[in-house]
Structures are given as structure tokens and as C-alpha cells.
Design goal:
Blueprint: E1 2-11, E2 14-19, E3 30-31, E4 34-36, H1 43-55, E5 58-64, E6 69-71, E7 75-86, E8 96-100, H2 118-128
Parallel strand pairs: 1-7
Antiparallel strand pairs: 1-2, 1-4, 2-3, 2-8, 5-7, 6-7
């Protein structure tokens, strides 16, 4: 199984969600931005690289949400909490980004693999109210 990592970027008690444009079955749905971990790359380094490519900003991984979720039979998703270090997220590979508070997590159509992380993330957002 190939590891895919997503970033739950937290700021001021909200998390950043990104809307996919491709593939067709995922277009218009929301996810934690990120991507595949390359050979010889740590999951943290992959997230920093992917967020730089996808959103043009720099992050710091602050922790990992519990568990992992299979994506088809070939990939496994893990989601990290992160905070912005530099820049504002600007979508390069998505068509929109949106900051969601804990009460807004159900307002968007999340991709299936991202959904299992929402309860833990919602609790984190409620308890922190600030950067993770």
C-alpha cells in the first residue's frame, strides 16, 4: 500500500479544506490537501512539499490524527495536523479553499477517505480554538 498524507491545517480554531478538480469522480468534493509520499521521503517532508506545490505556502506538521483509511486497494491515507509558517494558501491544483470551523465541518461534501478524520478533528478544533 502506498501512503498518502493529508494536512489538516489549523488556524484560529478553523481547518483548511480544498476542493478537488480531478479526477472526474472527485471533482467538486472537498479534502485535506496533500499527496503521495515518495520513496525515501518522510510523511512530514511529503506534506511540506505537497502543500508548497498545491497551495504555495509553508507548513509545520504538529501531530497526526488517529488511524489510517484505505483508498481503494492501493493506497492508505493518514492525516496530520499542521500550522501555517509562511504565506497564505492559494489553490494551484484545487479550484477553491475554505476555512471551516468545527460547526461547519459537515457543510461541505468531503471525499470518503477524509470523513473518518472529521470527528477527532472537530474535537480538536473545539478544544483548541487556536493553532494546533
Amino acid at each position: 500500500m502506498r501512503l498518502v498524507v493529508g494536512a489538516a491545517i489549523i488556524r484560529d480554531g478553523s481547518v483548511l479544506a480544498a476542493r478537488r478538480t480531478a479526477p472526474a469522480e472527485a471533482a467538486g468534493r472537498w479534502e485535506f490537501p496533500g499527496g503521495k509520499v515518495e520513496a525515501g521521503e518522510s510523511p512530514e517532508a511529503a506534506l511540506v512539499r505537497e502543500i508548497g506545490e498545491e497551495l504555495g505556502c509553508r507548513i509545520e506538521v504538529t501531530g497526526w490524527l488517529g488511524g489510517s483509511v484505505p483508498i481503494r486497494d492501493t493506497h492508505e491515507l493518514r492525516v496530520a495536523t499542521a500550522r501555517l509558517l509562511d504565506g497564505e494558501p492559494v489553490p494551484h491544483e484545487h479550484d477553491a479553499v475554505r476555512w471551516l470551523g468545527p460547526e461547519e465541518l459537515d457543510d461541505v461534501d468531503w471525499l470518503g477517505p477524509d470523513r473518518p478524520f472529521l470527528p477527532e478533528l472537530g474535537g480538536l478544533l473545539l478544544s483548541s480554538g487556536s493553532d494546533a
